[in-house]
Amino acid sequence: MIRLAVLSFWHVHADDYAREAVAHPRTEIVAAWDEDPERGRAKAQTLGAAFHEDLAELLARPDIDGVIVTTPTNAHRDVIVAAAEAGKHVFTEKVLALRPAECDEILAAVDRAGVKLTVSLPRLSDAYTLAIRAVLAEGRLGDVTLVRVRLSHDGAVGRRWLPPEFFDPEQAGGGALIDLGCHPMYLNRLFLGGMPDRLSASFGHVTGQPVEDNAVALLHYPSGAIGVAEAGFVNPHSPFTIEVHGTQGSLLYGTPEPRLLVRSVPASRDDDWIELPLPDRAPGPFEQWVDHIEQGTVATENIALAVELTTLMDAATRSARTGASVELGAAGG
Prior knowledge:
Blueprint: E1 2-7, H1 14-23, E2 27-33, H2 37-47, E3 50-52, H3 55-59, E4 66-69, H4 76-85, E5 89-93, H5 100-113, E6 117-120, H6 127-138, E7 144-152, H7 169-172, H8 176-179, H9 182-191, E8 198-204, E9 214-220, E10 226-232, E11 241-246, E12 249-253, E13 260-264, E14 274-276, H10 285-295, H11 300-322, E15 326-327
Parallel strand pairs: 1-2, 1-4, 2-3, 4-5, 5-6, 7-10
Antiparallel strand pairs: 7-11, 8-9, 8-15, 9-10, 11-12, 12-13, 13-14
Helix pairs in contact: 4-5, 9-11
């Protein structure tokens, strides 16, 4: 068994990962720490795990193999580096860090320690992502000219189910874009085949929170292709949507049904939309992490996309703040 500790229950997905670890046949949770001791103690009791008020004390335990990091986002760099230096494998909620330089420090610590790192980018494993990647690999759409991915929910309106800390700009590092918008952002980068050379973003504050609750980012490519990443906390019925358009066809998913539709015209302009079957979902990021620990492998694509995601989010924050587009070569720092 791989023995795990949960480091903080700040994030809304902390309980989800804890349940996944408890249900997994090859992992168990034995300890927990939280920057909020009252919250952490209660959660640890529910899990039947030992609670440590001191993080260093927990990380010094030789019987802990890995940690699940669901701290405030601005604590990722310090907590993940400390865990790696203590020889613990790390599974972490996105984003990996708030700044590219912090990602560099994390990766250096992970490399020195020889531990396994995986970032939760779950939509890379979803069936529609696998199917879309196959369509693009086959060249059925021609040269991709535009990708649009939208993800939004109603966490800031009505009963406002998002916890208050998600609206704290210091702890969260931002709002709708850095939280929900991570998924549209890394899917844009994936489907467009690489990093853009320039990014521009606009943030809205519909509910008056100190962080954005309505956001869009545009990824600009030298080829003329454009990526559109949309996210919000203010929409109760906005479907998760993917559009991929190219010089020879288009692809739609989730508008609004979870169906993958493709229309391409390499032979005839009269071809109609066809629905493609979806494959089985690939193993999710937590399962991948366990496999990497057991097999001694590295989450190469996952880590590369996670680092690029931080670069894109950093650029989007700069662009929204200044009202100007950001050259990606200037996004680090």
